[in-house]
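Q: For a teaching handout, I want to show students what a protein-ligand complex looks like in token form. Below are the inputs, and the small molecule is zinc ion. Please produce the holo structure.
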Amino acid sequence: MSALELVVRHARVATAADIFEADIGISGGRIVALGLNLPAGAREIDAAGRVVTPGGVDAHCHLDQPVDPPVRMADDFDSGTRSAACGGTTTVIPFAAQRKGGTLREAVDDYHRRAEGRAHVDYAFHLIVSDATPRVLHEELPALIREGYTSFKIYMTYDDLKLDDGQVLDVLAVAREHGAMAMIHAENADCIEWLTRRLEAAGRTAPRFHAHARPMLVEREATHRAISLAELVDVPILIVHVSGREAVEQIRWARAHGLKVFAETCPQYLFLTADDLGIDDSYLGARCVCSPPPRDASNQRVIWDGLGDGLFTVFSSDHAPFRYDAPEGKKPGGEEVAFRHIPNGIPGLETRLPLLYSEGVLGGRITLEKFVELTATNPAKAYGLHPRKGSIAIGSDADLVVWGEGEFVLSNERLHHAVDYTPYEGRTLRAWPALTLAGGEVVWDGRDFHARAGRGRFLPCGLPTLMPGRRGA
Ligand code: URP
Ligand code: ZN
Ligand code: ZN
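A: Here is the structure, written as tokens, with zinc ion included.
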């Protein structure tokens, strides 16, 4: 064996399948040896028996995504991927979003310009298809899939993004023909609009009414419709940011009927409730306005159960970063606005893994193997990045997290995003990455971030490997 550049010694290696003691030998940014008593490396890190997991793959986050002025996302590829690395995430998959009337190619080219030279960790792109023209369906999407953009999100809500059912079917048919992964935001747009108008007419415009305008029913209905549309086309889908029981029931029903329906959930559905949007009309609740909205404690339990029992495939942050006290953020133009106009989304790239590790693994709710599966291995498989990402295996990128355990109280000051709050302020956590390695480089040492913007590379994605056989195949 040629000399190892780095050995991470005495690791308690956790993968989606096993937990075992090993030294990890690294050369050229990749894992090249796993074993006991590996020969000395040019550099050595002593993990001292601590848990070492694959670097996280955050398969749903929004960075520097263009939105209508004056609103602007707080995190670009620099601050967003810095924050990711400090929280143990070494691959991010944000969204190149098509504008209605624009092309997908323009969106992809623009997004590359935004990322180029700025990322600290590796990144891939999902597409957002908001205008399913014949050219998009028959030329752009097939060409982009071949080039490594193998997943796309479609929205059933938001005026500037939503597709009608016929358009969803058209996009799903392209996913089927080319083996791509369709991600679906399932909420019923017309119900939301109807409820919003009634709330506005009654003067109920405070942030907390965002949750009243998007009850579980609107997510349940759209989830069922998305499943039905996918069944009609006979194509796997992945339902993103599932918030509670009624949507979970639809997904369980689909699985019981042999349909390939994958599901994602996010920290906000485990750790926040609708009360975080306000129990009175305070504008502070705007910080937790996201869609679907957080539900209640009983729905949180359903989401925990689904993480443990295999209902959920991936656990993502849905990081959608807007500053609270800012005219480009949650107070557009400097005003406290009606809930309809509050930018949707909350930050969570950096806290995703520590929250789940603390409350899920150390809280005894999920196994360490399940943690790895949900946060790294499955997202890498779902979006065609496995086994390069999401694994601790010979040949995989040396993206690793060495976990530190010990209680502390979370505050926004210790985070590295460009957002002026965290929804999890004051929460006691029990773990945080003591070290994050990306491609064998220490990018976070538990105290300091070792910045090198541009070290993160764009990753063209292969086809998903979660679904080797289609339904009936
Ligand atoms: O409120 C949210 N989730 N904002 C981000 C956009 C999306 O739909 O994922
Ligand atoms: Zn969404
Ligand atoms: Zn999102």
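A: Two things your students might notice: The chain has a mean pLDDT of 97. The longest strand covers residues 4-14.
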